[in-house]
Amino acid sequence: MTGLTAEHVVDGRAPQSPTLAPDGRLLCHVLVPASRTTDHDDTELWLVDVEGTAAPRRLTADTATESRPRWSPDSGTLYFLSDHAERGTAQLHRYALADGAVAAVTAWRAGIVDHLPLADADLVVLLAEDEPTEQDARRTRDRDDAVVAGVREPRARLRLLDLRTGRVDTPDVFGDRHVVEVRQRPDGGPLAVLTQASADSDYGPRTGRLHVFDPATGTAEELGPVGADARSLAWWYDGDGWHVGHIALTPPVLQAGTAVFDLALGTGVLANRTAGLPWCPTDLHQTDGAPLVAFADGLDSILARLDPSGPTTLSRHPGRFDDLTATRTGAMVAALTGGRYRPAEVHVGPPAGPLRRVTDTCPELDGVVLGTQQPFTYRAADGLDLDGLLVLPAGKDASDGPFPLVTIAHGGPYDRYADGFQLVWAPSAQWLATAGYAVFLPNPRGGQGHGHEFAARVAGRVGREEWSDILTGIDLLVADGIADPDRLGIAGWSHGGFLSAWAVGQTDRFRAALVGAGVTDWGMLAATGENGQFEVALGGSIGWSGIGPHPHDAVSPISYASRIRTPVLILHGVEDTNVPLGQAVYLHRALRHFGVEHEFVSYPREGHLIRERRHQLDVLRRTRAWFDRWLRP
Description:
The protein is α+β, with helices and mostly antiparallel strands. It folds into 2 domains: 12-137 and 151-266 and 277-363, TolB, C-terminal domain (Neuraminidase), CATH 2.120.10.30; 372-631, Alpha/Beta hydrolase fold, catalytic domain (Rossmann fold), CATH 3.40.50.1820. It is 16% helix and 36% strand. It is built from 11 helices and 36 strands. It has an 8-stranded mixed sheet, sandwiched between helices. Strands 1-2-3-4 form a 4-stranded antiparallel sheet, with no helix packed on it. The protein has a 4-stranded antiparallel sheet with strand order 5-6-7-8, with no helix packed on it. Helix 7 packs antiparallel against helix 8 (532-539). This is Peptidase S9. One of its GO terms (molecular function) is serine-type endopeptidase activity.
């Protein structure tokens, strides 16, 4: 048995994007390092023999970002993206099983965003931005590169690659709209296409529309608008004809649970197929028959079949069940899932289970001593059923308490803690539990896994009842003798960072706080963050909503900065566009003004998530040191 080190976390690797061949014989997945030491992610593609008769093998020896593996309908060719020729500019490649040859099939100067091999073996759909012109190149050389908002904004367009000639055609069917996703009908017919008005993360998701495009004739039909953040297209045939489904946020509010929407092409009727369910769909996957749906259900997950009468549960899985893939018939599925003490790996099997693990990407964690994790269920002050996780220090049980307790709020807020492995570079349960802390991971209202109404309860009310939900859980842990009331800490990243900043402005019960990439002013975030309209839905208003005070002022931590007495550690990426650095600067200046003990650490070149190895090591070590200083002097 060995102790957990920071290197265990940052030097690990994780599988992503598993994709089963339509015939079920092979599976390809991307292997992604937990951190990077250069400006690029050096990922790898691996092939797995599903029956286990051959050892897994790496597809190429390239140093590159390899991603988005997709099989041809006949299972004979694997297509993927790689930037090995020019880092940062991905091109489409193909691997032929017959001879093992790998070759690039595009040289598109703007790079390829996504792709879809079609039933016609000579055609592949490409999603790619326009290639730069000579005029563009000249302006760049001359530094005449002023950016005019709304003019020549990058957007992915649907293009058709003819593999026989290498020619790329761009059908003029969607105007200037940004193409998000494409799915071909399972019989090899037309394509369902999701578009947005632009690629702007603030504006685009509210402008989604669904189309049907026929590559044989080059014609398209618009089917109408779709909900915000639409994705996960799937076709199926029912008694009344063809249907196209997708996942989107439930209208009318943007802070809402997701739902599966079903458009019957014969009647034009759009229906919410998961209305009223206490689950939240996370993935919709097409087969030759009824599509498969993965659901978040509290701390666990469900795999179901979308039958005409509604979802039929096929199997339940502890923790998360991500990146669902299936064979053409749906007789075999694969997904990323794990356990309390094991990271997520690729598992394969029939939809009804059992699933068999076919990857082992973190053997270095075998034998590492971890904290004891258990579900924690309770009721909110208003009677709402809640859940979360409690992780006790390694080698301890509840009778050994009370312990110093760190509560870590999750991001989103439309996210959740599932009953899986809790170890990442950000403040995480096992990283602190192995250092002697008890850790509370709450799932307050506003999160995923309990249906639409549960998720919508924080719209315009962030920090209100959701904070009360968290505080109720902490009080129960104190009452049960697990948490030491004189040694309480609070932490979080993104929306969790907001809740941490909010907490210390509402109470002085905490002896230390960590605010990672946290929201401090909702009005400023709605005006400057990349998801402005979503932030308006959470905060309740924006600065241009007339003369204040505004609703968002009442739920912004910065409004309560004069009350803060708790020492605060602020961590933020300099190039964060989701929650811009100004949010951290605002809190830092306020705390400095009021003389509050704090540290402000910014990480150059980093966005909303910290990716560089040395920076991840710093976050891990600084997190422990901060709580050790204030909770375990």
